[in-house]
Amino acid sequence: MSQAEVKSLDLDIEGMTCTACSRRVEKSLNKIDGVSAYVDFASEKAHLTLSAAVDRADLVKAVEDAGYAVGAERNELKSTLVRLWVGAVIALPVALISMVHDWMPPNWNLIAAIATLPIVIWVAWPFHSAALKNLKHRATTMDTLVSLGVIIAYGYSLIELLMGGHEAYFEVAAVVPTVVLLGRWLELRTRRSATDSVRALLSAIPDTAVVRRGDQQLTVATNQVLVGDLVIVASGQKVPVDGTVVEGHSQIDNSLITGESVPTEAAVGMTVAAGSLNLGASLVIKTTAASANSRISQIADLVREATAHKAKISSLTDKISAVFVPAVIAISILTFAAWWLIGGDAQAGLRAGIAVLVIACPCALGIAVPMSLAVATSVGARRGIVIRNPDALSLLSKVKSVLLDKTGTLTTGQLRVAKTIPLAGFDEPRAIALAAAIERNSVHPIAKAIAALDSSLSAEGVIETAGTGVSGRVDGVAVEVSRRDASTFSNLDALVAAIAQAGPRSLAITSIDNQAVLLIALEDHLRQEALGTISKLKELGIEPILLSGDVEARVASVAKELGIETYFAGVAPEQKLDVVSEIKTKAPGGLIAMVGDGLNDVAALAGADVGLAMGSGTHAAQSAAAITLVDDDPLSIPYALSLGRRTWSNIKQNLGWAFGYNVILIPVAALGLLNPMLAGTAMAFSSISVVLNALRLNRR
């Protein structure tokens, strides 16, 4: 189908397992005239810009030539899970029975051969396919070793069976691809989170908008709103596009975007962002950016960019395989050559060479990393720590600095009255009751906090003025609760002194006849566990850094109270990723973790080496983060970091066991001294040792 009329096009790419895969697809697509391609490994999409007519079939062929596929709906995650279940159901009994095969009936090997065949052909197919692709590009990975080991183990065992021999390794062919497939499934599930976070971000923008065009008022799809259109935003509705207020006066809740709980004023000439919530009167805004270019869309783009370009941490097994696989193949060839050329026995050389490849098949190596990660993930879940990306545990072990969002992470994210200061000799309980009565029916966050103080009185004739406050009558007295400039009140000097006493907090003034009678100071109070969290981070040798979009005075006050030396205040959502990058450059060798809860934190969570999201936070934040703290307990932050260190240590110990097995038995196999019973026992012992060592993570 001709795509001449299309200027841009997205293709879903199946089969990519690393960033090198995305580069291969990108290179192949860019060879087509009129195509400029960027392939995003994280979202598994090819973003194409077409400057000429291009046939879709040519695009599909270019992707297939690179060794991958184009699909309208990706089902790789589901198919991998099905393969994993099939492999587990077959491999477990085959492995258990093989340990006592000397006591099994003579036809046991035939049964094992038949049972294992579906694993060799179908379950292990992703590894065979990847090995062929790697061979085409002259590369070797863990897939190469798994594929080679499975084929040789099964083929050698089948030949032995047909020739009446007893050296069978069917359990190797069954267990290895199944265990390694578990790690593959965990990786695929993690990569889906990047796409989920972008979708969650964009879902904050309303699907439709009310537009005034001439004398007409139309409801149109948000993506059809044009720059310059006048958009009407009613009270209680979300703003659909970025724009400038041209009519009306209201209060805007930007907490979804900035993370700060105190609403901001929206008056004529001020800008508002898509995704924010109109708390007061209706507004008319003039669109300054279409939905695709809105501030929240730009944040989504930052998430895509941060996730796509953040270097994927290759597993230890892949790094090892790059050296280990060629080395094993070389040893196998040299073994055969030595037996044939020096010993004159080509048949014995063939057996010894094959034995080297079989014994090198990574059974213990294949479970060394996944087993530790699986146990650690379970341990974290019991502590309310959901580890969506198990690889993050190894990264946590290297973290040297933790960026902590203030609102919703170290604080509750909900306003409360911190202090009330009576003025003009007015009775404080009476003034509090008056203020609470006036604020009771308002949905404003400040009003809710004040209304919770008292319920003894009722107000009448209440009028809420956007950007000013609420007024009415209580017991016949005219009362106003506002955030007006202090200079507009008659008792200015007393009010200024009270404001200084209140400190760096949000303020509301209760007045009667323009005389301030009560100053109410509100704050987003610290979580009870915040101080202990900072203390434990310091004990681990990790620097806590406070990051917030709030004003300097409040952020500095919280930092001082918690004992945090470094803080960043007034940071816009788009700038948080810049702060992460800046800190990375100042801390070479140490990784950066980011903890947040809101849309404003999403880009930073995706851009940090490890992102941790609070359980009460937005879905977008949790999707962008590798770890979610379900119970909202800040103390889970240092626990997660400690768990990461213990897991990394455990992985290295497991790899020691796995390689100890290979280092000892490869020379034995090369010398032709490999006894099948010895090989089976050693393999079982190595795997059991890895499992038992991983289970030690449950102790704390």
What does this structure look like?
The strands form five sheets. A seven-stranded mixed beta sheet has the order 14-26-25-24-15-22-23, sandwiched between helices. Among the domains are: 8-72, Alpha-Beta Plaits (2-Layer Sandwich); 208-293, Calcium-transporting ATPase, cytoplasmic transduction domain A (Distorted Sandwich); 376-411 and 527-647, 3-Layer(aba) Sandwich (Rossmann fold), CATH 3.40.50. The longest helix has 35 residues, at 636-670. It is built from 24 helices and 26 strands. Strand 2 and strand 3 (45-50) form a beta hairpin. It is of the alpha+beta class and 700 residues long. The chain is 50% helix and 20% strand. Helix 4 packs antiparallel against helix 6, helix 4 packs parallel to helix 7 and helix 10 (316-341) runs antiparallel to helix 11 (346-360).
CATH class of the domain at 376-411 and 527-647: Alpha Beta
Overall 3D shape: elongated
Q: Give the spatial strand order of the biggest sheet.
A: 14-26-25-24-15-22-23
Low-confidence segments, ≥5 residues, pLDDT <50? 1-6, 305-314
> How many DSSP helices?
24
CATH fold description of the domain at 376-411 and 527-647: Rossmann fold
The largest β sheet comes out as:
7 strands, mixed
Instruction: Please state the second-level CATH architecture of the domain at 376-411 and 527-647.
Output: 3-Layer(aba) Sandwich
The CATH superfamily of the domain at 376-411 and 527-647 is identified as HAD superfamily/HAD-like
CA radius of gyration is 32 Å
Number of strands: 26
